[in-house]
Amino acid sequence: MSNKLVIYNTLTRKKELFEPLNPPFVGMYVCGPTVYSDVHLGNCRTFVSFDLIYRYLLHLKYKVRYVRNITDAGHLEGDRDEGDDKFSKKARLEQVEPMEIVQRYTIGFHDVMNLFNTLPPSIEPTATGHIAEQIEMIKEIIENGFAYEKNGTVYFDVEKYSKDHNYTILTNRNLEELLANTRDLGGQDEKHGRLDFALWIKAKSEHIMRWPSPWGWGFPGWHIECSAMSSKYLGETFDIHGGGMDLAATHHTNEIAQSQACNHSQPAKYWMHTNMLTVNGARMSKSAGNGFLPHELFTGSHPLLSRGFSPMTVRFFMLQAHYRSTLDFSNEALEASDKGFKRLMAAYGLLGKLKTSERSEVDVAAIRERCYDAMNDDFNSPIAIAELFEAVRIINSIYDGKTAATAQDVAALKSLMDDFVFDILGLKEEHAQTEDISHIMDFIIQLRHEAKLSKDYVTSDKIRNGLQALGIQLKDGKEGTTWTKA
Ligand code: AMP
Ligand code: ZN
């Protein structure tokens, strides 16, 4: 196990040696998606970044409990505890149960995560499955004097908390300035202070998702779910808490306040934040309407794209930027990543065809060392990838007979690629898979064609529908029948 891993900690604003609280165990909590609509590519970038982090910790032989929640209740449209509940609103519009919305988008999220080859978390708890834990935590915060109830809604008292705690510890914002920039409370407002936020919200009569509580029927605020679920599964203080950078100022700031007010402890030792995926410099988000859906990329149906790009090309594109840098999305950048990914895979394919000799002109151990140095430096995947391209250059040169390498060198190159390309970066060969079934598909298409010729439409429809159920779409055209994988 490496003891050289260094992580940038948002809390201390510096890189720190990674020293888990209870090695070899590591607890990692990442804020998951709000499942009232499809995840966009920006969301995916954050989850792919944490997948890289998870994979590297596993590679270093840590025993990681990775908890990534599903927000399926309590997320209001406004940032300040106002507006509609996103799930209820969508359910009302579509005339379905809110839980049907949750189910649909949770399945969609898992499908997309699978396509990107991310490992599933160890636990994926939902907000609605942990109402009792959230209520218990709110009761404790009230008892400790940091929250108050008003007409069935419970608010966190930020002013009181700030008297002996640093509320903006995570972002280092100036509290006075923050207050000055926050809207005045309206005359009707129940809150005592402008920065107070809801822990529990009284359900209006039309609100379907509601639970009984000591304060009447209602539903939890968004921030409390992560505090309740992280402490339940990882303890009151655990190793890593992560999410997108946009969550630091409010969601994570409030999580820290809740944990301190309830448990008198910092929830996490290391806070990690991923930077944003942007389009023409603007953050990709659902509300800005510039969110690309993953399938628009895979099929190339988005107007900004000239063609479709495979999930592994997109994953490679994401990993070519450091997780704390912004990453701007463009057709050109994807084209370049596609080329790079194919070069990497082609070199891997050559490994079995290399001629070896007694002489060695390569130093694979040095490349491996530099790959570790890059990953140990706050998971610097772009530098690790640059080193892997040095390995690609060497493989091609051995293949061309320009560089001499021993059988051990070639074995070391294979093990380097296996560890870093597949295990740590989480890439996989996908083009080969498509080719693998093409001759089977030709055969099935021929069978269907023959069925149609003999007017056996029952069989031809059965073949088409059966393939569709397996995620394979047939398209009949002038040139014959073609197929695509969903
Ligand atoms: P949400 O479903 O909106 O709660 O977001 C799920 C995760 O995606 C959170 O960790 C967000 O911080 C993250 N996220 C949202 N937009 C982007 C973006 N444009 N780039 C990277 N991560 C994002
Ligand atoms: Zn969260």
Write structural notes for this entry.
This protein is an alpha/beta fold and 486 residues long. The chain has three domains: 21-274, HUPs (Rossmann fold, 3-Layer(aba) Sandwich); 331-428, Anticodon-binding domain of a subclass of class I aminoacyl-tRNA synthetases (Four Helix Bundle (Hemerythrin (Met), subunit A), Up-down Bundle), CATH 1.20.120; 433-485, no CATH class. Helices cover 46% and strands 15% of the residues. The protein contains 16 helices and 15 strands. It has helices at 41-59, 86-94, 98-115, 131-143, 158-164, 175-180, 222-234, 248-263, 294-299, 311-319, 331-350, 364-376, 381-399, 407-424, 431-453, 457-469, and strands at 6-9, 14-17, 25-30, 63-68, 147-150, 153-156, 197-202, 218-220, 238-244, 268-274, 277-279, 282-283, 327-329, 472-477, 480-485. The strands form five sheets. It has a four-stranded parallel beta sheet, sandwiched between helices. Strands 5-6-7-8 form a four-stranded antiparallel beta sheet. Helix 1 links the parallel strand 3 (25-30) and strand 4 (63-68). Helix 12 packs antiparallel against helix 13 and helix 15 (431-453) runs antiparallel to helix 16 (457-469). The longest helix has 23 residues, at 431-453. The two termini are 40 Å apart. It binds adenosine monophosphate and zinc ion (ZN). Residues 31, 226, 251 line the site of zinc ion (ZN).
